[in-house]
Write a structure and sequence with these properties.
- Chain B: It comes from Fertoeibacter niger.
- Chain B: Keywords: FAD, Flavoprotein, Oxidoreductase.
- Chain B: Residues 1-168 form the FAD-binding PCMH-type domain.
- Chain B: GO terms for molecular function: FAD binding; oxidoreductase activity.
- The complex is a heterodimer of chains A (787) and B (263).
- Chain A has 787 residues and is an alpha+beta fold.
- Chain A is built from 19 helices and 28 strands.
- Chain A folds into 3 domains: 16-23 and 484-630, Aldehyde oxidase/xanthine dehydrogenase, molybdopterin binding domain (Aldehyde Oxidoreductase, domain 4), CATH 3.30.365.10; 31-138 and 202-255 and 260-293, Alpha-Beta Complex (Aldehyde Oxidoreductase, domain 3); 374-467 and 634-785, Aldehyde Oxidoreductase, domain 4 (2-Layer Sandwich), CATH 3.30.365.
- In chain A, the strands form 7 sheets. Chain A has a 7-stranded mixed beta sheet, sandwiched between helices. Chain A has a 5-stranded mixed beta sheet with strand order 7-15-14-13-8, sandwiched between helices.
- In chain A, strand 22 (584-587) and strand 23 (590-593) form a beta hairpin.
- In chain A, helix 9 (376-394) runs parallel beside helix 18, helix 14 runs parallel beside helix 15 (550-577) and helix 17 (672-691) packs across helix 18 (745-764).
- Chain A starts with 15 loop residues before the first helix and ends with a helix.
- The model of chain A has no long low-confidence stretch (mean pLDDT 97).
- Chain B has 263 residues and is an alpha+beta fold.
- Chain B has helices at 12-19, 33-38, 75-81, 87-94, 99-104, 107-113, 120-126, 140-143, 211-219, 244-261, and strands at 5-7, 24-27, 46-49, 59-62, 66-70, 130-133, 137-139, 158-164, 168-175, 182-191, 194-200, 208-209.
- In chain B, helix 3 packs antiparallel against helix 4 (87-94).
- The model of chain B has no long low-confidence stretch (mean pLDDT 97).
- The chains are: A alpha+beta (787), B alpha+beta (263).
- The structure holds flavin-adenine dinucleotide.
- Flavin-adenine dinucleotide (FAD) binds next to strand 2, helix 5 and helix 6 of chain B.
- Flavin-adenine dinucleotide (FAD) binds at residues 25-33, 50, 71-72, 96-97, 101, 104-106, 108-110, 112-113, 115, 118-120, 152, 157-158, 180-181 of chain B.
Chain lengths: 787, 263
C-alpha cells in the first residue's frame, strides 16, 4: 500500500477544490485598473490583397482609443517559428514572415487585419463594424497536392513556393527501402487522411497586458502552457523586450491540448498596445474566434506501404505524407510531421528499413501545430491501420501478425533514429485481451447479429516518444530552444516547502502529483508542500507542459532539486547530531544516525538552516533552497494495447462504441487516479477524432465547421465506460522516477482501434470495405457500405 | 450584442401593442434569438418578452381528442405535461437540445423560427395541428412555407398550438452529430382517416409530408408497407453531415422505425 499522499497513492486533486467551486483564477478573471478592450477585425476571405483600410469613422466613435493596423507594427518582428527543418536536399525550410497584423495580404479566414482598442468591449465591436476594408479576393490555395504544382497561386509570393520543405527520413535508407519493396513477398498499401481537428479547450484564449512607464516593465497575463517560452519568443523576436522587463503569467488555464503552447499574435498585440495607449489592454477570445485563430491539429494526407517476406515478417515501410502547415508557421509546426512523426514510424515492430517522406505545404487555412499527441497519433494511425489491412490481405489474425513482429529486446535501436529503452509489448497485448474479454467477443457478436447489428473488435498497439526532450539531440534536429525543465525547491524555516516548477499545469493535476513526489522523498505530509507554477517572475526558466513531459522531465528536475535539499539537510543533521554525514539516514521525515536512536526531525533541521545559531557556518551556507535543471538523456517510450468494440447500424451507418479497453505501460505511476483521468480524456479525444470531429473548409477556404453547431465534440453519452489498466510496468531506465508520461497516450492509441473495429464489423457483416477516412460519421459509413 | 430596450408585458394585447414599435421583436425562450444577437446577425431595438404572459403558458387537453399548448410553453413543460394526452409529442419535446434549452426554449419560438432541422414542425405537420395567433387560426399545412419561412405576419404572435390526438404516433430523430438537431426527423401519426408522415431536417424546402409513405401506411400500418418505396434525393439538404442521398435514405429508415415505435 502506498503511503497516503506519497508516490503510488490516488490522492484526490487538491486543485479541484477551487476549480469545482468556481474559485479558479483564470486569465479572464484578471481585470486591471483602467484597462481597455481589444477587438480584432479578422479576414472574412481565405486569401486576398488588402487594397485599403478606412478606419477614420471607427476611430472617431465614442470610447475608441485607437485603431491599429499593420502600419503600427512596421518596426516590429514577425511571430517566430521555434523549429527549423532541413529538407532532403540539405536546404533549410522556407520561412515566410508572420506579421502580428496582416500586412498587404490576408492568408486565411480569421487572419487579423486591424484591432480596435476601446473603453468597453461593446464599443470596440461597434466601431469595428464601421471599418471599411477593401480586399481583392484571390483564389484560395487548399488542396495540398495541387498547391505544390508549379505555376499555381502562392500563399506567400516572397518565398516563391507553397512547399515549405520536402523531408526525407532517413534519406540514406531510401534505396535500401525501395529494394526491400522490390523483393517483398507481399506489399500492403493504404491511402488515408488524418483529419484536421480544432483543439477546443474549455477556456478560450485570453491576453491582458500592462506597461509601467516608470520602470519600463511589461506584464502579460496569458492562457499559456509555457509562460517562459512566450517571454522568450515575444520578448526577443517580436517586440524586443529584454526578459528582465517582461513578466509573463499563465494563471489557472482551462485546458490547452497543445493549442496554448504557441506564441500568438494577440499576445504580442496587447503587450505592444498597452505601451502605445498607456493603459492595460485586454483581449478575450470568443468561441467563434477560437475556431478562427487557435492553431489546429493533424491534417495529413498519407500513402503508406508495408513490405513483408514470405513468412509475414515486416521488411520495410515507406510513407509519403503531405502535411498542412496552414497559412503561417506556428511555433512548433515544422517539428510535428517530421521529428514527432517520422521517428515513430517503427511503432512496436522490428521493421529493419523505414523511409518517411513528408512534404509540408502552405495553404490558405488556419495554421496547424501540435494537438494532443502531435505527430505521434498520425504515425500510429497509419501504421496500425496498415498492419490491420495487411493481416486481412494475408488472412492472418491481426493480433498474431502484430505479435510476430513485436520488438522484444531492449534497448532497441529503431531505423528511425530513436532508441527505445524499455517495453514489453506482449505483456500489454496479453493484458488487453484479458481486460477486454476478447475471448467472449464471438458470443457478443452473435447477440448483436440477433438484433440486426454488426459488431466488430479493433486492436491497435502504440508507442510514443514522450518526455520531450534531450536538448543536444533536438538542437541537431532544428529546435531553436532547449527542452530541459527546471525546479526550485524552497524549504521554509518551519519545514513547509514551496516548489517552483517550470512545468505548467492546465488540467494535469501537477499541484497534487508533484507534491506526492516530494512528500515521498522527504517523508513528510504532502499538505506541507505547495507547487507553484505559471509566473516567470518567481519560477526558474522552464519550458512548460506538452509532449507528456511534465513528470518525466519537470518531475525529474524536482527530484534533482529535492536531492540537493536532502543532501544539504543531511549535512546540517550531521552537525546537529554530531555524527558523520555518511551515517545520517532520512526516513519518514526524520534524520537518524544509522544504528542508533539519535535523531533530529525535519523541522529541527529546517529551523537550524534558517536560525543558524548552532550551525557549521564556516563550511555551509544557511538556508535551504535549491534549484535544478534536468535535461533528459533520451525520450521516454510509453506503449500500450488498445481494444475497441463497436456496433454498426448498417441501415443508418451509426457507430456505437460499446466498450473501450486500454492496457498501457507508463512505467512507474505516481498517482493512479490522475493517470486514469488522463487516459480517459485522451480516449475521449481520440474517439472524437475517429468518429465525430472534423475541421472542414469549403472550396473557397471558408470554415464549414466554425462553431459547435457543425464541429462535433464527443459527449459523455457518446462514450462507453472506459476500461483502463496500467499494471504493466517497465520503468523508464533513464529518469530518476522511472516514469514515462501518460498525457497523450489515449489520443494516440485510440483512433486506429476505433477505425479497425468499424472495418472489422463491416467485413464480418459481409461488406467489402477496406478503409473509411475519419471521422467515421454515419453518413460516411453508410456511403461505404453502399459502395 | 447591440443595445436594445426590453419590455415584459403581462397580456397578449400589451405584447401586440409593444410589437408595433419600430424595430420591435418578440422574445420567447431566447434560445435562438439571443445567440443570433450575440453574433450581431440580429439587432432588434426592442425585445418584447412573451414569458410573463400567463395566457401563453401551459398545456390543456381532452384525452383522445386534442391537446392545446400555449405559445410560450417551454419544451420541458410539454415533455412533462403533454405526456398524458400525446406521448409522442411529449417525447419529441423531451429530446430537444439539453435541459437548459428545454427549460428556456418554447414551442411558439420554435414554430415561429421554423428552422429546417427543428423538431416541432414535424409534429405540427404530421398532426394536422392548428397554429393560433393573436389574429387567426392557421392550419399547419398552410403555416410552413420553407426554410425559416412561415405564414406569420409582422408582429403576429403564436398564442397556442392545438394538436388533434392520433391513435398512434412516434417521432424518430436522427441527430446531426454536432448540433444534435435533427439531421433527419420523422413524425408518423395514425388517425382514423389515415396516416400522416412529416419529415424535418431533410429538405431544402423545410418540413414536408412524405405522400407516398403516407399512402402505403394508410393501407397497412406496418413498416413492411414501405418496401419497394424510395425517397428521391432531389431537393434534399447536402452538407458536411450528410449527402442528399443519405438524407433521402434516412427518411425511409426512420419512417419504418417510427411506425414500429408508434404508441
Ligand atoms: C443548444 C441548443 C440545442 C437545440 N436543440 C434543438 C433540437 O434538438 N431540436 C429543436 O427543434 N430545437 C433545438 N433548439 C432550438 C430550441 O428549440 C429553441 O427553443 C427554438 O428554436 C426557439 O425557441 P425560443 O422560445 O427559444 O425562441 P426565441 O429564440 O425567443 O425566438 C425565436 C424566434 O421566434 C420569434 N418568436 C418567439 N416566440 C414567438 C411567438 N410566440 N410568436 C411569434 N414569434 C415568436 C422570435 O421573435 C424569434 O424570431 C436548440 C437550441 C439550442 C440553443
Amino acid at each position: 500500500m502506498p503511503k497516503d499522499g506519497g508516490i503510488g497513492a490516488s490522492t484526490k486533486r487538491r486543485e479541484d477544490i477551487r476549480f469545482l467551486t468556481g474559485k479558479g483564477r483564470y486569465t479572464d478573471d484578471i481585470n486591471l485598473r483602467g484597462q481597455a478592450y481589444a477587438h480584432f477585425v479578422r479576414s472574412e476571405v481565405a486569401h486576398g490583397r488588402i487594397k485599403g483600410i478606412d478606419f477614420a469613422a471607427a476611430e472617431a466613435m465614442e470610447g475608441v482609443v485607437k485603431v491599429f493596423t499593420a502600419a503600427d507594427f512596421a518596426g516590429v518582428g514577425g511571430i517566430p517559428c521555434g523549429w527549423q527543418i532541413t529538407d532532403k536536399h540539405g536546404k533549410v525550410m522556407l520561412e515566410p514572415k508572420h506579421p502580428v497584423l496582416a500586412d498587404g495580404k490576408v492568408r486565411h479566414v480569421g487572419d487579423p487585419i486591424c484591432v480596435v482598442v476601446a473603453d468597453t468591449y461593446e464599443q470596440a465591436r461597434d466601431a469595428a463594424e464601421m471599418i471599411e476594408i477593401d480586399i481583392e479576393e484571390l483564389p484560395a490555395v487548399l488542396d495540398m497536392k495541387a498547391a505544390i504544382e508549379p505555376g499555381g497561386t502562392l500563399v506567400h509570393e516572397e518565398i516563391g513556393s507553397n512547399l515549405c520543405f520536402d523531408w526525407g527520413f532517413v534519406e540514406e535508407n531510401k534505396a535500401a527501402v525501395d529494394e526491400a519493396f522490390a523483393k517483398a513477398a507481399h506489399v500492403t498499401t493504404l491511402e488515408l487522411v488524418n483529419n484536421r481537428l480544432v483543439a477546443n479547450p474549455m477556456e478560450p484564449r485570453v491576453a491582458v497586458a500592462d506597461f509601467e512607464s516608470h520602470s519600463d516593465q511589461y506584464t502579460l497575463y496569458t492562457t499559456s502552457q509555457n509562460p517562459h517560452v512566450i517571454r522568450l519568443l515575444m520578448g526577443a523576436f517580436v517586440l524586443g523586450i529584454p526578459e528582465h522587463k517582461l513578466r509573463v503569467v499563465a494563471p489557472d488555464v482551462g485546458g490547452g491540448f497543445g493549442s496554448k503552447i504557441y506564441h500568438y499574435a494577440e499576445e504580442a498585440f496587447v503587450t505592444f498596445a498597452a505601451k502605445v495607449v498607456k493603459r492595460p489592454v485586454k483581449w478575450t477570445s470568443s468561441r467563434s474566434e477560437a475556431f478562427l485563430s487557435d492553431a489546429q491539429g493533424r491534417d495529413h494526407v498519407t500513402k503508406i506501404e508495408l513490405a513483408l517476406d514470405a513468412e509475414n515478417n515486416f521488411t520495410a515501410i515507406r510513407t509519403d505524407t503531405y502535411a498542412n502547415m496552414g497559412a503561417y508557421l506556428s511555433t512548433f509546426a515544422p517539428a510535428i510531421p517530421t521529428w514527432l512523426h517520422g521517428t515513430l514510424m517503427a511503432g512496436n515492430y522490428k521493421t529493419p528499413l523505414i523511409y518517411v517522406n513528408v512534404k509540408a505545404v502552405f495553404t490558405n487555412t488556419i495554421p496547424v501545430d501540435a494537438y494532443r499527441g502531435a505527430g505521434r497519433p498520425e504515425a500510429t494511425f497509419q501504421l496500425e491501420r496498415l498492419v490491420d489491412k495487411a493481416a486481412r490481405e494475408l488472412g492472418v489474425d491481426p493480433v498474431a501478425l502484430r505479435r510476430q513482429n513485436f520488438i522484444t529486446e531492449f534497448p532497441y535501436q529503431t531505423p528511425v533514429a530513436v532508441v527505445y529503452d524499455t517495453g514489453n509489448y506482449h505483456a500489454t497485448m496479453d493484458k488487453l485481451l484479458e481486460i477486454s474479454d476478447h475471448a467472449g467477443f464471438e458470443a457478443r457478436r452473435m447477440e448483436s447479429a440477433a438484433r440486426g447489428k454488426l459488431r466488430g473488435f479493433g486492436i491497435a498497439h502504440y508507442i510514443e516518444a514522450c518526455g520531450i526532450a534531450p536538448s543536444n539531440l533536438v538542437g541537431q534536429l532544428g529546435a531553436r530552444a532547449g527542452l530541459y525543465e527546471s525546479a526550485t525547491v524552497r524549504v521554509n524555516a518551519t519545514g513547509s516547502i514551496s516548489v517552483y516548477t517550470g512545468s505548467h499545469s492546465h488540467g494535469q493535476g501537477h499541484e497534487t502529483s508533484f507534491a506526492q513526489v516530494v512528500a515521498e522523498m522527504i517523508g513528510i505530509d504532502a499538505a506541507q508542500i505547495d507547487i507553484v507554477h505559471g509566473d516567470t517572475s518567481n519560477t526558474p526558466m522552464g519550458m512548460g507542459t506538452y509532449g507528456s513531459r511534465s513528470l518525466a522531465v519537470g518531475g525529474s528536475a524536482i527530484v534533482k532539486a529535492t536531492n540537493k535539499i536532502i543532501n544539504k539537510a543531511k549535512k546540517i543533521a550531521s552537525h546537529l547530531l554530531e555524527a558523520a554525514e555518511g551515517d545520517i539516514e532520512l526516513k519518514d521525515g526524520k534524520f537518524t544516525v544509522a544504528g542508533t536512536d539519535k535523531s533530529v526531525d525535519w523541522v529541527g533541521v529546517t529551523l537550524a538552516a534558517y536560525v543558524p545559531h548552532n550551525y557549521p557556518l564556516e563550511s555551509l551556507e544557511p538556508g535551504l533552497e535549491e534549484t535544478a535543471f534536468y535535461d533528459p538523456s533520451n525520450f521516454t517510450y510509453p506503449s500500450g494495447a488498445y481494444g475497441c468494440e463497436v456496433e454498426v447500424d448498417a441501415d443508418t451507418g451509426q457507430v456505437t462504441v460499446l466498450a473501450f479497453s486500454a492496457a498501457d505501460d507508463f512505467g512507474n505511476i505516481v498517482n493512479p487516479m490522475i493517470v486514469e483521468g488522463q487516459v480517459q480524456g485522451g480516449l475521449a479525444q481520440g474517439i472524437g477524432q475517429a468518429l465525430m470531429e472534423n475541421c472542414a473548409y469549403d472550396e473557397n477556404g471558408q470554415l464549414l465547421s466554425g462553431s459547435f453547431m457543425d464541429y462535433a465534440m464527443p459527449r459523455a453519452t457518446d462514450l462507453p465506460m472506459f476500461n483502463v489498466d496500467h499494471s504493466c510496468v517497465t520503468p523508464c531506465t533513464h529518469n530518476p522516477l522511472g516514469v514515462k508520461g501518460c498525457g497523450e497516450a489515449g489520443a494516440i492509441g485510440s483512433p486506429p482501434a476505433v477505425v479497425n473495429a468499424v472495418i472489422d464489423a463491416l467485413i464480418r457483416g459481409g461488406h467489402d470495405v477496406k478503409h473509411i477516412d475519419m471521422p467515421l460519421t454515419p453518413s460516411r459509413v453508410w456511403a461505404a457500405i453502399n459502395g | 450584442m447591440h443595445n436594445f430596450d426590453f419590455v415584459k408585458p403581462a397580456s397578449v394585447a400589451d405584447a401586440v401593442a409593444a410589437l408595433a414599435a419600430e424595430g420591435a421583436q418578440a422574445l420567447s425562450g431566447g434560445m435562438t434569438l439571443l445567440p443570433t444577437m450575440k453574433q450581431r446577425l440580429a439587432a432588434p431595438e426592442v425585445l418584447v418578452s412573451l414569458t410573463g404572459i400567463a395566457e401563453l403558458r401551459g398545456v390543456s387537453g381532452r384525452a383522445g381528442a386534442s391537446v392545446t399548448i400555449g405559445g410560450a410553453t417551454t419544451h420541458a413543460t410539454v415533455a412533462a405535461e403533454a405526456k398524458a394526452f400525446y406521448p409522442a409529442l411529449a417525447a419529441l419535446a423531451g429530446q430537444i437540445g439539453d435541459p437548459a434549452v428545454r427549460n428556456r426554449g418554447t414551442i411558439g419560438g420554435s414554430l415561429a423560427n421554423n428552422d429546417p432541422s427543428a423538431c416541432y414542425p414535424s409534429a405540427a405537420l404530421a398532426s394536422g395541428a392548428t397554429i393560433t395567433t393573436n389574429q387567426r387560426d392557421i392550419a399547419a399545412e398552410d403555416y410552413f412555407q420553407g426554410m425559416f419561412a412561415t405564414a406569420l405576419g409582422e408582429g403576429e404572435i403564436i398564442t397556442a398550438v392545438t394538436f388533434p390526438i392520433p391513435e398512434k404516433a412516434a417521432y424518430i430523430k436522427f441527430a446531426q452529430p454536432a448540433s444534435r438537431f435533427a439531421l433527419v426527423g420523422v413524425f408518423v401519426a395514425k388517425y382514423a382517416d389515415g396516416v400522416r408522415v412529416a419529415v424535418t431536417g431533410a429538405s431544402n424546402d423545410g418540413v414536408f409530408r412524405w405522400a407516398e409513405g403516407e399512402a402505403a401506411l394508410s393501407g397497412n400500418f406496418n413498416g413492411s408497407a414501405l418496401e419497394g418505396l424510395s425517397v428521391p434525393s432531389d431537393g434534399m439538404i447536402a452538407d458536411l453531415h450528410g449527402t442528399a442521398a443519405y438524407r433521402a435514405h434516412l427518411v425511409k429508415v426512420l419512417t419504418k422505425r417510427a411506425v414500429a415505435a408508434a404508441m
